[in-house]
Write a structure and sequence with these properties.
The chain is α/β, with parallel strands linked by helices. Helix content is 60%, strand content 13%. The chain is globular, with a radius of gyration of 17 Å.
């Protein structure tokens, strides 16, 4: 089988063309070599990150971004279920969500990477509003929420999440990410988040630090 790094271009092309048949053909090669987890970290996550960057530069369409995320999310779920990945960093309840919009690529990247790193987290889905998010977090006793956004109006609503958490007396860390926060370095502070991350590795490092403080 080709080395995983050499599969990235072929995988990216297949994903952008929505060629599920070729995506599965590539994955079958990976299954034969039993490198599924490495495939997630070395191929899927970097390809999704590149697609996100290309969208920000105007090189790919939003529809391609959306469908790329959906295809990869299905593939990653299949991999993790098949391998029955054991989660060892699950002492602090964590949730991830796409707030007020349906752009799932950023959430897919972070969720997928954190799962393979060994974190156990609840996926609250996409498009939910502030009240729904806070109510779910209260019910599930969540201590860390990862919020992914695509558009500035969604980013600004993180401030409403923070205010509602305070009203309920909930001590929850907010980690945000997405295009608006990369365009404005101070936006995450202005909306009341505790930190922002620009990559899966950065998110993992921040969460590990917080877990040490919250334990």
């Amino acid at each position: 089988m080709k080395r995983l790094g050499s599969l990235r271009d072929e995988f990216e092309t297949s994903i952008l063309e929505l060629n599920r048949l070729n995506v599965m053909r590539i994955f079958e090669q990976v299954q034969e070599s039993k490198e599924e987890i490495n495939f997630v970290n070395d191929v899927i996550v970097p390809v999704l990150e590149k697609i996100g960057q290309d969208w920000e530069k105007g090189d790919v369409a939003l529809s391609q971004v959306y469908m790329s995320g959906r295809i990869c999310e299905e593939l990653i779920e299949h991999i993790l279920k098949k391998l029955s990945t054991s989660h060892t960093k699950d002492t602090i309840p964590i949730a991830i969500v796409t707030l007020n919009d349906f752009h799932t690529l950023g959430k897919t990247i972070i969720y997928s990477a954190l799962r393979t790193y060994g974190f156990d987290l609840l996926d609250y889905g996409s498009g939910i509003d502030e009240d729904t998010l806070v109510n779910k977090a209260e019910k599930d006793k969540i201590r860390i929420i990862l919020i992914s956004v695509l558009m500035l109006p969604s980013a600004l609503k993180v401030k409403n999440v923070r205010e509602r958490l305070k009203m309920k007396g909930l001590d929850v860390k907010l980690l945000v990410g997405g295009a608006p926060f990369r365009f404005d370095d101070n936006l995450w502070k202005n909306v009341g988040a505790d930190a922002m991350a620009t990559s899966a590795k950065e998110a993992a490092d921040i969460i590990l630090k917080w877990m040490g403080e919250l334990a």
